[in-house]
Amino acid sequence: MSIAATGFETDPDVIAENRRAMLRSLWHYVRLNARDYVLGSIYTLGYVVGFIAVPMLVGWAVSAVAEGLPPAEVARRCAWLAAAGVARSLLRFVSRVRLFNAAREIEFQLRNDLFEHLQRLPQSFYFHWRTGDLMSRCVNDLTAVRLMLGPGLLSVVQTPFLFLAAFGSMFWMNPTLAFLVLLPYPLFVLVSRALGRAMHANNLAVQAGLADISNQLQESIAGIAVVKAYAMEDTSRRRFDEVSQELYERQIGMVKVNGAMPAITGLLPMLGMAIVFYVAGGQIQTGEMDLASFFAFSMFIYELTFPTFILGWVFALVQRGTASMQRIDEVLKTEPSIAEPESPAEMGTLRGEVEFRDLTFEYPGGGREPALRDIDLRIPAGSVIGVVGPVGGGKTTLASLIPRLFEVPRGHLFVDGVDVNDIGLHDLRSQIAMVPQDSFLFSMSLADNVAYGLPETEARSVVEAAERAQLAKDVEDLPAGYETLVGERGVMLSGGQRQRTALARALALDPRILILDDTLSAVDAETEAAIREGLERVFAGRTVVVVASRVSTVRDADLIVVLDQGRIVERGSHAELMAEGGLYSRLAREEEEAGEPGTDADPVAGAALGGEA
Amino acid sequence: MSGPPGMESVFQEEELGKAVDMRLLLRLWQFVAPYRGQVLLTLLMVAPMFLLELAPAWIVKTGLDQVILESNGGAAAAGNGEAAAAGEGGALAALLQGPEGVPLLAWLVFLYGIAVVSSALLQYLHMLIMASTGMAAVRDLRRAIFDHIQKLHMGFFDTIPVGRLVTRATSDAEHVAEMFSQGIVAAITDVIKMIGFATALFLVDAKLALMVFSIVPLLAIALVVFRLRVREAFRLTRVLLARINATLQETVTGMKVVQLFTREERNRREFAELNGAHRDGWKRSIYYDSALFSTVEFAGGITVAIVIWQGTGIASAGVLYVFINWMRRFFMPLRDLSAKYSVMQSAMASTERMFQLLDTEPDIQDPPADRARHVHAPGEDQPRGEVVFENVWFAYSGEDWVLRDVSFRVRPGEKVAFVGATGAGKTTIIKLLTRLYEVTRGRILIDGVDLRDLPQNELRRRVGMVLQDVFLFSGTVADNLHLGRDDIDGERLRQAAMAVEADAFIQRLPEGYDTEVRERGTNFSAGQRQLLSFARALAHGADVLVLDEATSSIDTETEAMVQRGIHVLMEGKTSLVIAHRLSTIEDVDRIYVLDGGRLAESGPHAELLARDGLYARLHRLQQAGETAAA
User: What is the topology classification, in CATH, of domain B19-205+342-360?
Assistant: First the structure.
């Protein structure tokens, strides 16, 4: 969950402030589309006039027939009625288009803003927020906001006027009857509001049931090898049946409530009509009321049905919409803690010197031990440095700070002697290439993946990079070569191919600083040896940081640092560290005993670059 | 999965086709058939529901013409239609006259009340039965799909992303349920009602009805045109939204790479473009949808004017009332016909996809009962655990042989290891022995019985498998050890866990064996997960063990525990180890060296070394590596 997820806040001031902030951002977007909203509202008011006019004109025309007025007069009145009907439909059309378009426009702007914002948030943000949670805000919450600002707002603008105008006209015609007809409406609004809430609750329950089903299925399929190996089909079928039945029951519960809504809405005008029928029937007989009013009344009652029905729904829409806006706001108001410097230093081409000065780093979010402590480390331009140590020692953190994936305190990390906080992000990152542990690929073509970091116009080094990463030979075997689509997260490629693609993507940048974070675990040893050979040429003239979980991977590095619990506990060349007899030599010995010469996939070639993911 | 339900479907761009496909509907019927009584009931209910919808306006008309305006003296002459309709049924006329002594108006209002209340009740009931039938049918369909998925062979899962299968049983199933509640039945009911209202109007006054319906063809053309436009735009927005959400999800998941490669600006541009196309699609859709909406409203308004204008002199006020009321009911369904159409379309597409899945035959099936053999029928010897591969060939597809003519025999209680480069076919041996895949040629025997003649359940209880990546299910630690087998009690679990040294860390967990496993076991280290899988295999007590040595990084201390665990696990069992490190297997009975799918060498460690072949070379390379490291 999020750090400050909605609903966990108990301080009333904070709740009120969050709400105000949410309304402010809503207002911001509404104002951006002020023109549409103003025009839409004006058209809506016009529609209200038409809404009143039609029933009145029906009564007027019918009474002409009933009173036996000449056909010309009837025709004249009918023409008026038809004209009003046309005008009303047109106004309805333009107001709907205006307001709904405005809502879509806001959806567009909000989605763009969310996307842009998410791209600016640092990696630490993604530690706290799960993808599913973020997606739910970008998909479900955005829809809820859009519904509130489109149909919701239309109804909020329109319904009060409709009711005022309709009942005003009815009171003008016949106060007693108007009063009697008005009676059931407040009750109805209450009922529909309660039903709306129940509908929402039931809907959530059904959604949760669907999520259960989907989790159950996902798990059974992901673990299908175990399911089959342990012949547990019956057990998992039983579990699935349970959640499936549970969903079914919740769905029935939902239908019971949801169905009550149209039944009651259908009933309301009919009961109103019964009142009119009885009371007006009597009054017409005594001459207190005319036929025109009778028809106008009955028309009004029917015409009000839909807006009333919608009203119950609108309560729910607004409630959900504001809650959703608050959830979206939570993301939007998270300040990107990694900001562009106000006046970035002129860097030009980096030499590639990196220096950590007494750096202590703690992941934001509080309460945790610092991931790195008192790091002092100078990596001269053009040198190869190895970083090893036990799991959780801070190796990846150290590597991730150089391209500033996390917020680095000022005065502790320098590239070419300049504080990283003063270097433009693009300047910095375009010259540093990091190959992260998980070789994440995008669902585009292989070539596009390799060229991911290159400017659009520059396709130059794709093939070259692929060759260096020992990927080129594989590409020949792929159905569409470099244009092969790699699928979601690169599922079309083998693990080794994915890692080499990620490597090629980094090499394509021709970076000044290259960071390999335990990169080649799924590459078999022979290929790895070949990559290694290719890399030696690549390494020349660059600063290279190799993070590895096995010491044998880094033994040729110019300098090796050993990280343990966030501290540099040893540093030196392989020979020095072995002589020292500390953690490094112990790790090396243990690896040796475990028969680990540095390759793990297959005992073939000697030197290996990456350990394991 | 952490995402909300339906999230997977964003990756699928839905192809929409026909709204009604009889072939699919007929197949769907088999799931509805158990509830055919309910279906029949909903159909039978349509007639009374329709009559109850007709009634109120007719009652008001009777009141207007016979009571209200009669005594007022201001009524127009009763129309011909009214006379015709009144003559129709003596019973109806009698009912509308009411009992003696009750004022007619009061009686009519009473009838009116009864009609509207029972109409509402009936509609509610109808909807309830209709929806619950659909949901029950879909629940059964979902079960069938789940059952079927479990039966499919492993190869199937290599080709299809998990998310797509999940979609079959979630969103696709929901679409079909929707068809029942808002699609097909509702559409049929609507059409019947529209025909009914039109007929009733003609019966009341044919001439007036003809006048009014003269605008229907025009209206129909407008509706069809608008609906087609809406559908086009709607289809486009659907595809675009799927792409938008897929892009979003991918970008969020791969945000580290996005930022490392400073792709933000270009992503922003491309995303805004996609997002803009989606918005424009919606604007088009809104335009035509509103036009549709207004056209229906417009038609409703104009027909009222026509009715009144043309009714002069021929229709009473009551007839005018009936016309206005029924016309409105006639036009109402037109408004959301297009919505129903799209519900049907997506339901058909979903049904098609679900049946496609159900039609996928599992490649690997149990032997027919008469051919099924049991390794140890009652009275026979205890299972011995002999494994024989006889000229086994295997290819995942076509002639890409992964194994070529592999033959070997592992005697009961022996321990053997398989070594070789990646792609040499080591892992395939496991997959074939557990029959997750079927041999292409040759055969595999376990205690003399061909695997294909052995029920899969039995095979898998005999052959324990420990895989490289350990899969943990949600549930407790204990659940993950016994995996639903109720003959494995807590004591047996503990003993197994103790034997492989997993007990100690399990005991340290907050709730011991009852601790919940979170998100596929992320609350356990790789080493702990390995130990859990050993305990699992040990508790299940198979007599043949296949073990794929883990390559994932484990800290050296746990590594030692894992090695000890492996030894405990293999004790007294026929064991086949897929080895990734040579040092761990030096003491096995025999080592098989695979090269390009062929068995290149076999023999004990020392013998193979002496032979100075492939194994010796591998071993030397490793030695060299160690010396270099030292």
Answer: ABC transporter transmembrane region fold (1.20.1560)
DSSP code per residue over B521-554: GTTS-HHHHHHHHHHHHHHHT-SEEEEE---S--
Assess whether pLDDT exceeds 70 at residue B521: no
Enumerate the residues of chain B whose CB falls inside 8 A of the CB of residue A403.
Answer: 259-260
Angle CA(A228)–CA(A234)–CA(A235) in degrees, nearest 5? 95
- Does residue B382 sit at the A interface (CB-CB below 8 Å)? no
Quickly tell me which residue has 């480390």 as its tokens: A377
Q: Which of A482, A509, A536 is the last residue of a domain?
A: A509
A486/A549 same-domain check: no
B360-403 residue pLDDT tens: 887 777 777 777 766 555 445 566 788 999 999 998 766 678 88
CA distance B121 to chain A (A): 7
For residue A508, the distance in angstroms to the closest alpha carbon of chain B comes to 11
Share of chain B above pLDDT 70, in %: 85
Q: Which of A292, A225, A305, A329 is nearest to A74 (CA)?
A: A292
Q: Nearest-5° angle of CA B244, CA B247, CA B249? A: 110
Predicted pLDDT of residue A186: 79
Q: How far is CA B97 from the centre of its chain?
A: 58
Q: Is the pTM of this model over 0.90?
A: no
- Rounded to whole angstroms, the Cα distance separating B390 from B472 reads 34
Q: Taking 80 as the threshold, does the pLDDT of residue A231 lie above it?
A: no
Cα dihedral B61, B66, B72, B78 in deg (nearest 10) = 80
Average pLDDT over residues B588-608: 87
- Looking at the structure, tell me whether residues A544 and A474 fall in a common domain: no
Tell me which residue range forms the domain holding A152.
12-332
Q: State how many domains chain A has.
A: 3
Across A225-244, average pLDDT? 84
The C-alpha R_g of chain A, in whole angstroms, comes to: 35
Of chain B residues 582-621, which have a CB less than 8 A from chain A?
582-584, 618-619, 621
C-beta separation of A297 from A52 below 8 A: no
Residue B135, CA atoms < 13 Å, CB-side half-sphere: 22
> Mind telling me how many Å the CA of B308 is from chain A's nearest CA?
6
3-class DSSP state of A419 = strand
Residues B429-458 as b/e (b if ≥16 CB within 10 A, e otherwise) read bbbbbbbbbbbbebebbbbebbbbbbebeb
Q: How many other β-carbons are positioned within 10 Å of the β-carbon of residue B387? A: 24
CA B233, B238, B242: angle at the middle one, nearest 5?
150
Has residue A485 got a pLDDT over 50? yes
Which one of A460-464, A538-542, A604-608, B197-201 scores highest in mean pLDDT?
A: B197-201
User: Cα B522 vs. chain centroid, distance in angstroms?
Assistant: 26
**Closest-CA residue in chain B for A295?**
B321
Within 8 A of A255 by CB-CB distance, chain B residues are 127-128, 131-132, 135, 181
Contacts of residue A26, defined as CB under 8 A and 6 or more positions apart, other chains included, come to A145, A149, A322, A325
For A418, phi then psi, to 5°, come to -110, 135
What is the ipTM, given to two decimal places? Answer: 0.82
Are residue A250 and residue A184 in the same domain, yes or no? Answer: yes
When the pLDDT of each residue in chain B is averaged and rounded to a whole number, the result is 80
Name the nearest CA neighbour of B144 among B172, B116, B118.
Answer: B172
The reported pLDDT for the residue numbered A491 is 63
| Separation of alpha carbons A184 and B625, rounded Å | 89
Report the pLDDT averaged over residues B167-192.
81
Whole-angstrom distance, CA of residue B537 vs CA of residue A90: 73
Parallel, antiparallel, or unpaired for β B449-450 and B441-446? antiparallel
Residue A509 has pLDDT above 90, yes or no: no
Do A216 and A227 form a contact (C-beta atoms < 8 A)?
Answer: no
Give the range with max mean pLDDT: A180-184, A406-410, B441-445, B580-584. Answer: B441-445
